[in-house]
Every structure is written in C-alpha cells, then in structure tokens.
Specification:
This protein is 48% helix and 8% strand. The protein has 12 helices and 7 strands. Helix 2 links the parallel strand 2 and strand 3. The termini are far apart.
Length: 313
Amino acid sequence: MTPEKDFVRPFELMQAIQQGCLVVTGNLRLARSLIGQFDQSLKDKQQIIWNSARVLPWSSWLHQIWENGLMEGLIEPSIQVLSNEQELQVWQQIIADSEVGSALLRLYPTAKKIQSAWSLVNEWQVPLTQEAVIGQYDAEIFLQWQEKFKSICEENQWITSSEQINELLKLNSARLSLAANAHAVKGKKIILIGFDELTPAQKALLEHLKLDILWYEFAPEYQEHSVNRIACHDSREEMHVMAQWVRHQVQRDLALKIGVIVPELAQQRQALIHVFDNCLSPANLSPNHLETQHLYNLSLGRPLSEYPLIISA
C-alpha cells in the first residue's frame, strides 16, 4: 500500500538518519540540505567520526535500484537507459524528419517540450490513443512523434529514465525489494520527504516493493506573523524594495534565514543578482573586484548556454 503522509520534526528526521534509515527526497536540493544539516548536527555534538547520511533524491534512488537489479541479474543487460541528452537527440531527429518539424525554425525548444511531455505521460500513466486526441492538432502530432520514438527505442532496446519504473514493475517483487533496500541498514525504514504528491508511477513502484516505507513532510512551525502588501511601479522597483527589506531584516538578526519567492526566476535571474549584489554586497560590482562572493543563494543555476565554453562550441 502507498504510505499515508505524516508530519516529522527536523530533529526526529536527524535521529532517523543517524539510526541508519534511508531518506529519499523529492529533489537533489533537499537531499544536499539534509546531508549538510546532519553533518552539522554531529559537529555541534563534538563528534569526530560518523557514518555518512543515507540521503538520496528520488532519481538517484531509482538509478541505484536499477543498477542493483542489473548486478543481481534481474534486468536484462542489453536494455540501455538513455541519458537526458541522448533522449533529446532522438526526439530532435524524429521532429526534424517529420513533415511538421521540417517547417520549425527552432527544433531544440520543441524537442525539450516533447521530452517533458513524454516524461509526464509515463510518470502519470496517461493512456494516449488515437481516439483520445481526435480534433486536437497538437496532441495528434505528439502521438505521431511518440509512436515513432517508441518504435526506435524498441528496435534498439532503449528506454528513457521516465520508463524505468514500468520496467521495474515487471520484476519479482521480493528480489526487487532487496535491490531497493541495499543502501539502508537492515531492519530500518525508508523515509520519503519533500514530495507534495506522488505520481501514479511512484505509487505503483512503492506498492510493488515489500518494504517498510514512511512518507513525511516537515511539521509546520507556528509563529506570529503579519502580511503587508506594497505597490511598486514595475518589477525592477519591486526587486529593490524587497532587497532593501532583506538587508534591514538581516542587519537586525545575522542568524536570520529569509526565503524570497520570485515568479519566473529564470527570466529575472540576472536582474535579481544585480539588485541583490548592489544592496547586500556592492563590492561584487566593482571592476577591480577579483572574487565574487554572494551573501545569498539562488535555487536556479546559471544555464549552460551562457557559459563561454558552450557558446564557442
């Protein structure tokens, strides 16, 4: 059965990690954060040596289940899981060779969208049939490309990362459970955290595994708070007002942690960095400044397409 979601407090989760529970997170960022918190908590206790935290994002856990399945002989070695880049190349070729795709000016963005749609179809187990897409032009084209993609993959014994769960569900449940539990201490639970909801594919895998799995979210911390709404002329002024507010709050309490939610962060990223640097660390904007040190952290990294090495490739 799919586990029911429950609350957990941070210190309880740290205790579970120290006891050897395997923690599977919804994303890589949370996994890194928990590992850092775990290490820091033991440093604070003056410990010198400890076992590494068994914390993995879902994608890494799934990859390790697959690798363990290969080593145990559960999975046919001839099946190749395409990397995201390899899958994208196949989609681009299919689109370029199609009648519709030959008229497109930008194949790469279209292929990225189709790749994302293919992942959603598998993760949410959406049955796409000819009857279901009648009268929907975009869906009909996607279905044609999908059928071509499936044909190429079957011919070459390829699967995508979003199809791995479907393959794992075909395997013996008991033996697969051993592969899934290889990184947990014997007798300890597997904990899921950082999942707003589970996709049908994730639920199917968890039900297929005969393991003791708990699904948690962090217990809310109730504090007094107030809400203020400020009108700004444009997004640039909004950034300045917000950065000034952050600086004021940090000056009052250097240990304070502040989260800022920014719509369309990818488009606003560079402007946001400039405003925050100007407000929090103006030395970064000096032409003679050699080493850039940000007093903040953005959850969205710089796109590869902006690096000189990639641009000149």
